[in-house]
Amino acid sequence: MAILKYIISVFLWQFLNPFGLWQSLLQNAGQVVAILRAKKTAHSGRGFSVAAPFHGTWQVARGGTDRVHSHSWNLIAQRYAYDFIYPGGRPQSGDPGSGQAAAYPAYGREILAPANGVVLRAVDHFKDNRRAGSGGVNFLSKSMLGNHVIIRHAPGVFSLLAHLKRGSCTVRAGSTVKKGQVIGLCGNSGHSTEPHLHFQLQDRSGFYFTAGLPILFSRVEVGEISKSEKTRLESVTLKTGMTVRNLTDGESFEKGEPAEVQPARGSLFLLINSVLNVLGLLVWIFFIVVLVLVPFGRSLIVWLQ
């Protein structure tokens, strides 16, 4: 039922919400550009090292470096993205206020800069979705990302941290940030079914015309939500179901060599699919203009006369 609610709500947002329609068009057009450009990307190897962008232990709700665990394998901008929630942080359905975003322990927790860098964009004026846990997104929302921060860490390496709490950003465009510095609070804005952090690395500063980069989490303790064993590693990639915590300066760790993960590259199928999506959205916009906006405008002119 939750999956059905999600599909229906996203469909309504994409095709009936003008903000959603425009952003869907940008996302598909951006994917076409990113797929064509990704063949020439200079990035290769194991990824860019960052710290986990929060205090304490969080859980990967969705994300990984393979097709099975990937956040969104067919969206190359979000292929290596992660959705983090606070483990055990979903309120019981019978609890008072369980459907309220503020009842989730992740809500309002500090979000940190994953590495040193310069803030390129900081947005925090979108309202948080008060309801959470239904499985659907707010199809009336004006932004897919909601409140978010984009940071430039190195040439061709940018981080995106999204779904932040309204009015919580502590940085602004042009601010220099240090790894571990608070940049905002976890919220439930944009396309968010519950309070969580969407985190990704990308090769361009914008969200739509970019390709995702693999992420190496440096000096962290990792485990699985269903097991008590924890491992402290110098560098690791994560996957759905794992927990992660930044190590303190005094904690030892094991050195390891994470498997090499290539930057996101799209197939011919994805390219054709994205082109067809762009054409379909343009046709839909044309019909809205011809069948709805033009007749409405004419009726309004007649009424005013």
Note down, in words, how this protein is organized.
- With 305 residues, the protein is an alpha+beta fold.
- The chain has one domain (46-264): Glucose Permease (Domain IIA) (Distorted Sandwich), CATH 2.70.70.10.
- 24% of the residues lie in helices and 25% in strands.
- The protein contains three helices and 14 strands.
- The protein has helices at 2-16, 18-38, 268-304; strands at residues 48-50, 58-63, 82-85, 110-112, 117-123, 147-154, 157-164, 176-177, 182-185, 197-202, 212-213, 215-224, 230-236, 242-246.
- The strands form two sheets. Strands 1, 2, 3, 5, 6, 7, 8, 10, 11, 12, 13 and 14 form a twelve-stranded mixed β-sheet that branches.
- A hairpin with a 2-residue loop joins strand 6 and strand 7 (157-164).
- It is globular.
- The mean pLDDT is 90.
Which labels suit this protein?
305 residues; alpha+beta; Glucose Permease (Domain IIA); two-stranded antiparallel sheet
Quickly describe the structure.
This protein has about 300 residues and is of the alpha+beta class.
Blueprint of the fold:
Elements: H1 2-16, H2 18-38, E1 48-50, E2 58-63, E3 82-85, E4 110-112, E5 117-123, E6 147-154, E7 157-164, E8 176-177, E9 182-185, E10 197-202, E11 212-213, E12 215-224, E13 230-236, E14 242-246, H3 268-304
Helix pairs in contact: 1-2, 2-3
Distance between the termini: 50 Å
The count of helical stretches stands at 3
Taken from the alpha-carbon principal axes, the silhouette is globular
Extended strand count: 14
Please tell me the CATH architecture by its name. Answer: Distorted Sandwich
| Low-pLDDT segments | none
The structural domain count equals: 1
Order of helices and strands: HHEEEEEEEEEEEEEEH
Please tell me how large the radius of gyration is: 20 Å
| Helix content class | 10-25%
At the fourth level of CATH, the homologous superfamily is Glucose Permease (Domain IIA)
CATH class: Mainly Beta
